[in-house]
Amino acid sequence: MTDTMKTAGARAELDATDRALINALQGDFPLSREPFAEVAKRVGLAEAEVIARVRRLLDARVLTRFGPMFQIERIGGAFCLAAMQVPEPDFERVAAAVNAFPEVAHNYRREHALNMWFVLATETPAGIADTAGRIEAATGLPVFRFPKEREYFVEMKLEA
Fold first, then answer.
1. 118: helix, coil or strand?
2. Which residue has the higher pLDDT, 61 or 7?
3. Which of 6, 60, 98, 151 is the most buried (most CB within 10 A)?
4. Are the C-beta atoms of residues 94 and 52 closer than 8 Å to each other?
5. CB 139 within 8 A of CB 97
6. pLDDT, average across residues 55-74
7. End-to-end distance of the chain based on CA atoms, in angstroms?
8. pLDDT recorded at residue 63
9. Which residue has the higher pLDDT, 96 or 158?
10. 3-state DSSP call for residue 28?
């Protein structure tokens, strides 16, 4: 039995091996010279097949991101949740402008007066204000910033 996930104009078939691989990639990724070989042993595949499946899942947008999570503040950077109130007729234009900034991640549309929410990630804390200002200049709209007051660790794993 397979599940079909709709992706941008295509369908990606998930088999039991894809599910096992997705589950194995969430947390405890090996920090070694050959991490994919170690994952391959866990799920009973060849290393090349693990890499090929991860690429296919990323290309099909079943996985939207595969990479490490950093505590950016420990290396001198900053994160900030930000939001904008975007008039509906301008939403796509503003989204494209905002998403063009490399400092922007996780841009979401919300049913709220502040209908565009995104995360700013910068190399320095001062970069947050600078990037927000550049976004305001590019869009003509204010960027509301919601800096982190407290950090919580929630290890979220989604069963595939």
1. strand
2. 61
3. 98
4. no
5. yes
6. 82
7. 14
8. 85
9. 96
10. coil
CA distance 147 to 84: 15
- Nearest in space to 113 (alpha carbons), one of 82, 142, 143, 84: 84
| Token couple for 37 | 């070989």
Average pLDDT of the segment spanning 54-72: 83
Helices (H), 60-122: 91-99
- Whole-Å CA distances, 140 to 1, 64, 90, 92: 50, 29, 11, 14
**Is 17 in contact with 53 (CB distance < 8 Å)?**
yes
Question: What pLDDT is stored for residue 110 in this prediction?
Answer: 93
Q: Over the chain, what is the mean pLDDT?
A: 87
Query: Are the C-beta atoms of 126 and 103 separated by less than 8 Å?
Result: no
User: Does the CA dihedral 70-22-56-48 come out positive or negative?
Assistant: positive
Token digits of residue 73? 């503040």
